[in-house]
Amino acid sequence: MDGNRMDRDLHKINTIEAVNSYVEPRWLVEERDACGVGLIAQQQNIPSHNIVSAALKALGCLEHRGGCSADNDSGDGSGILSAIPWELFHAWMKEQNIAIPPQERTGIGMVFLPQQPADAQIVREIIGQVAMAAGLTVLGWRVVPVKPEILGIQARENQPQIEQIIVSSELTGEELERQLYITRRRIGKAIAQQTKLQWSEHCYICSFSCRTIVYKGMVRAEVLGEFYQDLTNPAYQSAFCVYHRRFSTNTLPKWPLAQPMRLLGHNGEINTLLGNINWMRARQADLKHPVWQGNLDALNPIVQLDNSDSATLDNVYELLVRSGRSPSEALMLMVPEAYQNQPELAQYPEIVDFYEYFSGIQEAWDGPALLVFSDGKTVGAALDRNGLRPARYVVTRDGMLVVASEAGVVDLKESEILEKGRLGPGQTIALDLNEGKILKNWEIKQRVAEAHPYGEWLKQYRVELGSRESGVGSRENGNGNGSSPHSSLRTSSRFANTPHPYTDRQTLLRHQIAFGFSSEDVEMTIQPMAAEGKEPTFCMGDDIPLAILSGKPHLLYDYFKQRFAQVTNPAIDPLRESLVMSLKVELGARGNLLDPKAEDARRLLLQSPVLQQADLEAITQSGFECATLSTQYDITTGPAGLTKAVEKLQADAVAAVKAGKQILILSDRAPAAISAETSYIPPLLAVGAVHHHLIKAGLRMKASLVVDTAQCWSTHHFACLIGYGASAVCPYLTLATVESWHGDPKTQQMMERGKMSQLTLQQALANYQKAVEAGILKILSKMGISLLSSYQGAQIFEAIGIGHDLLALGFYGTTSRLGGLSISELASEVLSFHTRAFPEVTVKKLENFGFVQYRPGGEYHMNSPELAKALHKAVASPDNYDHYNVYKKHLQNRPLTALRDLLDFQSDRQPISIEEVEPASAIVKRFCTGGMSLGALSREAHEVLAIAMNRIGGKSNSGEGGEDPVRFKVLEDVSEGRSSLLPHLKGLKNGDTASSAIKQVASGRFGVTPEYLMNAKQIEIKIAQGAKPGEGGQLPGKKVSPYIAMLRRSKPGVTLISPPPHHDIYSIEDLAQLIFDLHQINPKAQVSVKLVAEIGIGTIAAGVAKANADIIQISGHDGGTGASPLSSIKHAGTPWELGLTEVHRSLMQNSLRDRVILRVDGGIKSGWDVLMGALMGAEEFGFGSIAMIAEGCIMARICHTNNCPVGVASQREDLRQRFPGMPEHVVNFFLFIAEETRSLLARLGYRSIDEIVGRADLLKVREEVRLTKTQTLNLDCITKLPDTKSDRAWLSHESVHSNGHVLDDEILADPEIQAAIQDRSAVSKTYNVANTDRTVGARIAGAIASHYGDDGFEGQLDLNFTGAVGQSFGAFNLSGMTLKLVGEANDYVGKGMHGGEIVITPPPEATYAASENVIVGNTCLYGATGGTLFASGMAGERFAVRNSKGVAVIEGAGDHCCEYMTGGTIVVLGKVGRNVGAGMTGGLAYFLDEEGNFPELVNHEIIKLQRVTAPAGEQQLRQLVQTHAERTNSAKARAILANWAEYLPKFWQVVPPSEADAPEVNPDAAVSKELSSVN
Predict the structure, then answer these.
(1) CB 274: neighbour CB atoms within 10 A?
(2) Does the pTM exceed 0.85?
(3) What whole-number distance in Å separates Cα of residue 199 and Cα of residue 799?
(4) Mind giving me the DSSP string for 817-877?
(5) Which residues are catalytic?
(6) Helix, strand counts (H, E) of the chain
(7) Per residue in 1333-1343, pLDDT tens?
(8) Which of 1460, 1436, 1464 is nearest to 1450 (CA)?
(9) Nearest CA to 303 among 448, 185, 416?
(10) 1351 near 1315, Cβ under 8 Å?
(11) Tens of pLDDT along 482-523?
């Protein structure tokens, strides 16, 4: 990019208006990051320059894990933290004639000063004054020698003046560290008070310590050592280095945000950040420790709302360490492991007690994280509870410890290596520099846990509420394997004696109406949950008006949309990985974090936040001081009375806490039930207002909030209440509703007739609770949060339509970009419910508002039957444009539904003739259909969409599930609209092809083969789906026909689940790697990334653009789905208008807009919608549900049942016969849309869509619109986009981004390789590799697949490699390719491999036992559809996840081995981690159990364990071990074969139900047949 353009763009950044009407935390919209990190340390603590050089080299090897700004040269940041190089400083002090004080009394500060000399001088003076006041002597300022000329443009323009302050003190050791820490905090405050300079914007202290120093900046890793000349000075010596290379999603260069921070290098994302910040603010009032001697006030505020997650984490961590905690203990407090389901902890009850004690004092900082740390005395690394970042380590004979995000970043002699390992979930490793000792996980934790008798304290003080027989609570959340340290309050008889609060149905009905229940809530949510114990499933999407636009009254909850994880952090799988999750909650005062005391264990432990009536009573009688605060208020005070009522409630709460109350129960039935005179504060407002008020008053840690409310029934309601501060909720009216339903004669008759399961009332109430608990876990997991205690108060929502006074009162810190309801307007909405119930109830039953199912007279639905009928008439013929006008009028006259309905066009030009506008044939090329899978749709529906889109030059999307290779062929035999290739379709033409132009790669990787990818024009990575973001997909077993099972390489009739996360995308750098993989195999196909709109998506999209995506698709919350929980369809994600404009703005501000095409989808139905999307920044447009309607869908909304009456969404042969659609109908629809678009363009005076993309100045707010609920919506964030009238250069995009120079290109350029592929002959070649050689082999596989398909190559390529190879080695490998590696590999080996062989062995000079050392990384064989892998060593987490045909032998693995496997065979000749076989529905696995503990490591939900008894099973196992021994020369395999009779009984065979009759499992089974592709 040229410099002038860059200058223009940077100028633009500064002039773009801040358009958000409510400022959310900056980290949410400006900063996300991920990275590569590591450490190198020398056990003997001998400083050397070699360690520093090795760290710089390692940083360079992680360059691909970082990102670059738009100038392609300014790095997102890199740095090192090391011991202070005293020799360097002493030499400088000598030169300056400064008397050198004792080293132990000297401190060094690394300071970023302002660029302006005058400002820099002011800062220097302030720093000097504060230092002197603190008792320090300033010895001098050293200008750090740097080379600015090597920086990129952006980095250079923002480069601070970098200097070091040298001070001396009377203190030493920890006291000196604390003195420097307090001084640094006081300097920040003094600069804020005495200048207009902003801390961390204009000046910043990177480190101020007597032990450590940080060198960092906005530079690429490769040039850090060149920029800071000190780092290449031989006098710079250290015994350790922590290093960090950053990939920031946002690239506005900020030097202070580079890492390491002062103690930590953090690779990850804290998902609970807002909650952690709120709780830390609340905690400040109670913090105390003798070492601070009254100086703690100088440190407050410990955290700031605007700081990044890494900086905030480092701030709290630093406080703990400086307060006397060891670095390892501080991390155990903040990032605890999943100790409740860890079998190994049975031997360490004291560690469990430590975690249990602190779980009630410090909520976990939850999210994926590899944390590398040093305080100068210890250096080490720790991994998050889920193990969501790679962490490989090496220990050498001469005492070197190397930890890094990748193997092979430091050159070490193989013969010198003692151990190659990896950190598993929650594990830590450290080197005590003083003792000269490397400490492993349990030893570190045991040392920490034995410091206090935590178990005794818990036994003495903690009380547990009841023992749960029901719900998720009992199964997942026991007290680990430690002691059971607390007394217990029994509530197990709680249902038996509960008095029914509603004696007559009329009172129940009255209260249900007053609190906003509808018949849909009772019949579609509450009753199914009570009957079946799970959330109801629904389909399609949310096509009703947003709550703020609706004319019908909504609950306050409906204005809050759940946020969810995408790209920068993964969602968790609450079904298959529940071992890391917990709903445990503790009530009572929370103790002082800095100084543990026995009495701080006095808390009331609940296993679930969902309270039955008796649980609430037990809490009030628990011995803990409780106060019940009424949330009612006098209705006669009118709408204005709500504010006063909330303020009174806040005052009552403060008074109660000051009076010593530890549990506040906020109740809307106290002192008595509501009446004609009394209404209620919405419970969500009540809890949020009290929570924030107590934080401000410094009292929040002294009491817990329990909500006792009538207005809570869905999982979303519970999530909102907990997310805004509640610890537990008793939904008393919902429980009464369940009781009433259970006692209803109709229900009893249904049970008697066998129409539903027999249930006692206790079972129905327990079922409801179980469903709510599972739903809460799912909501937590969507955001990647494991623990309810971390979700509580974390406010992970965006408000759509909430005004600022209301936000300030109850929801401080929540984003609300549009403004909206004021407090009095909310009061009016509450009163509208109340007036239906009082003084008289005039109805016999609850009203059906039609929020879920369409009904005449109910809420408006965009996809109504009338709309479908009008469209079916229109598309029947290309001449039916008059019918299309009828369809268009339906849309034009609709009630306000979407945000775009509040807008209209305004032109700055005169209209032109439609003939001057680009033709429809050009416009339709911008159209795409949605990612609807073959499986969710019938073959007919799926193929018709593909053929239609190919005819018009648009793009259809395969969805997840693969495609039959027959579809890649061009039809040439069509007669009377029929073809023998696709005999089930009509209306065909010669030249048609049913190949989807966009091939989707989703988390299940079903059907993703090399041939499939090579037949793509675009490859879409589906990160999230509009209808259910943060969740996986599910294809019910009845839709998995033999044909679908063949395409997906699974078992007919067995439900298929796509995991919530892509298991190879836990971070932005992981996404960059998958994009690299896909560009590698098919360099001609564009790669698109599908995201769902939510606040912060702009900064995520900036990261995606930098990760080399070609297209970004923004989906709205209203997308469709084949099956999803109802609460997900309704409450997750935001409108695409907000997402698209945020992304376009962010990319423009970061000068990245030219890197990607933007596509938008979600409820787009007309040319008017297309133009709206274009003006907001979209260049392409996706059509989902409406394209299905065009081919015949009638919106029956029963897709999930397989009973679609018109064969669009069914696999049943009889229903598919009824499919009415033809390609021509879909073609007609899109041509109509294009013609409408043309007429609108002509009206605006523009000739093409290109001319109006991003021109939001052509939008205006419709003046005549009157909303029922508010008039204060502010649409500036949509209508005020960067001015692009003149500069349109960003619209010219590179067609496909390149991976640059790769090893595969060299291999493919070799004439012998070319000849072998061409002639199908054999060739053998040898190459050296490094960790920067990534996805080796994939491009060769792609070249072969493009000639021969998946299975047609009969030649043989033997490719031999030596070294530590990069990620994705052997990805998408094909038959006829054998990759042999002597060395080690990183993550994703054999990802998506389809055939051939991968063999990995340690170098011959290695002296360690291969079977006990790690040789490959995490997530190997993910989505493999064939081929074999032999690795002589251990693998990481999630080995063979979603493997469907691959065969492998390895010698050990981490957690989650064989997760979601649907086929293939896996043999593990060594130890494994937890959760083996979770979600495994096909294939077989064999595990050698030498320790006798394998059964407790298995997830028994689906699979069963047995010994190998069938002769065919023994033969299969022995043959694989034999082949493994031959290929790898494995000592372990040879030993097993030599002692077969001894080893065979130690093997377990893992068998899913679909394999129960396989001959390898059952000696009496018959051999089964397999279905092949249709040709």
Answers:
(1) 25
(2) yes
(3) 30
(4) TT--B-HHHHHHHHHHHHHHHSS----SS-----SSS--TTSS--SS-HHHHHHHHHHHT-
(5) 35
(6) 49, 52
(7) 999 999 999 99
(8) 1436
(9) 185
(10) no
(11) 344 456 665 443 333 344 468 788 999 999 999 999 999 999
